[in-house]
Amino acid sequence: MSIKRELxxxxxxxxxxxxxxxxxEFLKSRQNLSISSATIRNYFKxxxxxxxxFQPHISSGRIPxxxxxxAYWKDVLQYVCQSDVVITAAxxxxxxxxxxxxxxxxxxxxxxxxxxxxTHGYLILQFSRGETLIQYSEALSxxxxxxxxxxxxxxxxxANEVGAGELKRKLMALLQVDSEEHCFQCxxxxxxxxxxxxxxxxxxxIQGRTLLSCSNGIYFEGIVSNGHLAIIHDVLYINAKTQSxxxxxxxxxxxxxxxxxxxxxxxxxxxxx
Length: 273
Prior knowledge:
The chain is an alpha+beta fold.
């Protein structure tokens, strides 16, 4: 790793911890750096010109830009989406409170399309756990026939990609009803700023629509407002009362300055870049 990269990572990590601008002397002592403070300040100037850092006022230390934090978290958390994280409600609630992260968990049980019935100008879509009604069209009928026995999440993903709006709304409604009794969430107060700036994003998150309609991955825009991060991935959820374990999906949302690395480390994930 180059000195410039090492300094940038150091600034990001210290800023996430302190939430205060980082000066050269502070960084040198905290990171046990062998180079001089003057050399560090020269690197600061280079990083500032490159748009990685900015200085709130002339006598202060430096702060990483949002773009820098986006790149940092995308790199650090890229393998979390591929990890088998095991969670319980109590553990998640404790960590949510400690790190200021909103979390929502929804079971991933199979709910497959078992039949499509054409009747009186409508199509009845019968799934393993429920059914829905949608207006008939020949194109939609052919589309659905190609997805027989497919999981509802896979159909929803394709419907979203091809812009099948009515089908997407029907599947979302069916999924929401199916998930209401099995959904666990905590920390909604930590995304109250999203509610203030974009009420639709906030409601989509806490009502499960965002998690149900999005693929696993890390998001910085679209489903969250500026300055926030969302990460979606599979988990193994343990029911503390029954000690049964089942597959689920989890979405975590928080400010860019939340310590997601420590949050996931305490969940038992060590798969960081």
